[in-house]
Design a protein that fits this description.
The chain is of the alpha/beta class. Strands 1-6-5-2-4-3 form a 6-stranded mixed beta sheet, with helices on both faces. Helix 3 runs parallel beside helix 4, helix 11 packs across helix 13 and helix 13 runs antiparallel to helix 14. The longest helix has 18 residues. The protein is elongated.
Length: 343
C-alpha cells in the first residue's frame, strides 16, 4: 500500500495507529507529545504509567482512547548533538520499531509525525530523509498505508538547498514565466509563408486527393468497422505489456509506483480503466520509462505533459535526471505544494 506525506494535525488523522514522539518517561510533554495526550484524555496517561518508560530508539504501544485511532505507538527520538552521537541510527530505529509494532498488531495504516524535528532539534530536512528511507524500505516487503504528517510545511520547503535546482528548472521551463517573452518574439521567429505552389506540389496534392477515400465510402463503413480498425492499445493493456517486457512482478511494479494493491487489481481486470494523471505517471516512474515513453503512456490515458504545470515539470525533471525513486519525487512535489504520485 502507498506512502503519503500530508500536512495535518496528527491527532485528527484517522488510521489504525498514530506515532507519538514521546520522551523517555512516556508521561507527556510539549509539542506532539502533549497534543496527543490532551486529545486522547487522561486514560492514555494512566496506561503510560504502567509501561515503565521507554529507551531512545525503542517503541511501546497503548490504546488510542479518545483519538480517532486504535493505538498510539510511543517512540523516543534522539536529541540532536551535531550528528556525532549516533543520532541517525537511533532515529532510524524509532521508525523501524514503530512499524514493527504496528505490523504485530495487524495495523493496516499508521501515521508518523516528524520525529525529533521539534524541541529535540534534529534538522528537519535530515529528519524527513530518514523517515522516507525507513518507511520506503519497510514498504518493499510489507502492505501498510503509511502517512508522514507534517504540521509545518517549513519541514519540507521548496526553499531548501536540495530543491533549489528543481526550482531553477521550473523557472527556466514554466510557461507562465516566459509567456510574455514568447509572444513578444513570436513575430520575429515565425517563418514566412510561401503561398506560391509549383507544378510538383500540385501533382503531389492531386495524387493524395485521388487516393483518399470518398465521403460516400466513409459513410458506408459502420461504426464497428471503424473502431475495429482504428482503436489503439489501452492504458491498461500497455501497462501490463510493459510489466511483462521489463520482467517485473505485479507486486514489484505497484509498490514502486506507490499504488494500492486494490487499485492495481482494478486496472488489471478492466482493459478500459481510466486512471488519473498521477497514477499514470506513478507507473511510468515505476517502469523507469524515458520521457518519450512516458508521453506515450500518458497519451493512452488521454493526458499529456505540459510546461504550464509545475507538477508536470517536476516529474519531467526527475525523469530527465534518471531518478526514478517515487518517494524522492513526492517529497519534491510536496515541497512545491503539488499533488503526489500514486494512490
Amino acid at each position: 500500500m502507498p506512502f503519503q506525506i500530508i500536512r495535518n494535525d496528527i491527532t485528527k488523522v484517522t488510521c489504525d495507529a498514530i506515532v507519538n514522539a514521546a520522551n523517555k518517561s512516556l508521561l507527556g510533554g510539549g509539542g506532539v507529545d502533549g497534543a496527543i495526550h490532551r486529545a486522547a484524555g487522561p486514560e492514555l496517561l494512566a496506561e503510560c504509567r504502567t509501561l515503565g518508560g521507554c529507551a531512545t530508539g525503542s517503541a511501546k504501544i497503548t490504546k488510542g482512547y479518545r483519538l480517532p485511532c486504535k493505538y498510539v505507538i510511543h517512540t523516543v527520538g534522539p536529541i540532536w548533538w551535531g550528528g556525532f552521537f549516533g543520532e541517525k541510527e537511533k532515529l532510524e530505529s524509532c521508525y523501524r520499531n514503530s512499524l514493527q509494532l504496528a505490523m504485530e498488531h495487524r495495523c493496516e495504516s499508521i501515521a508518523f509525525p516528524l520525529i525529533s524535528a521539534g524541541v529535540y532539534r534534529y534538522p528537519a530536512d535530515q529528519a524527513v530523509k530518514v523517515a522516507i528511507e525507513q518507511i520506503s524500505t519497510f514498504l518493499e516487503d510489507h502492505e501498510m498505508m503509511v502517512y508522514l504528517v507534517v504540521f509545518d510545511r517549513k519541514a519540507v520547503s521548496a526553499g531548501q538547498k536540495r530543491f533549489r535546482e528543481i526550482g531553477e528548472y521550473i523557472d527556466d521551463t514554466y510557461v507562465e514565466t516566459s509567456m510574455r517573452y514568447d509572444i513578444r518574439n513570436r513575430k520575429q521567429s515565425l517563418p514566412k509563408v510561401n503561398t506560391a505552389c509549383n507544378e510538383a506540389d500540385t501533382c503531389f496534392y492531386q495524387e493524395k486527393m485521388e487516393k483518399a477515400p470518398s465521403p460516400q465510402a466513409v459513410r458506408e463503413k459502420s461504426l464497428d468497422e471503424i473502431l475495429e480498425t482504428m482503436i489503439d492499445e489501452s492504458f491498461s493493456e500497455m501497462l501490463l505489456r510493459l510489466i511483462d517486457e521489463k520482467g517485473m512482478k505485479d507486486s514489484e511494479c505497484y509498490k514502486k509506483a506507490n499504488i494500492d494493491r486494490k487499485l492495481f487489481s482494478k486496472i488489471r481486470s478492466n482493459p478500459l480503466y481510466k486512471p488519473s494523471k498521477p497514477t499514470v505517471l506513478a507507473f511510468a516512474v515505476a517502469l523507469e520509462l524515458s520521457l518519450d515513453e512516458t508521453r506515450d503512456m500518458l497519451m493512452k490515458a488521454g493526458f499529456a505533459l505540459s510546461h504550464s504545470s509545475k507538477f508536470d515539470i517536476i516529474v519531467e525533471y526527475f525523469i530527465k535526471k534518471g531518478n526514478y525513486n517515487i518517494f524522492d519525487i513526492n517529497e519534491a512535489l510536496f515541497a512545491f505544494d503539488q499533488s503526489l504520485l500514486g494512490s
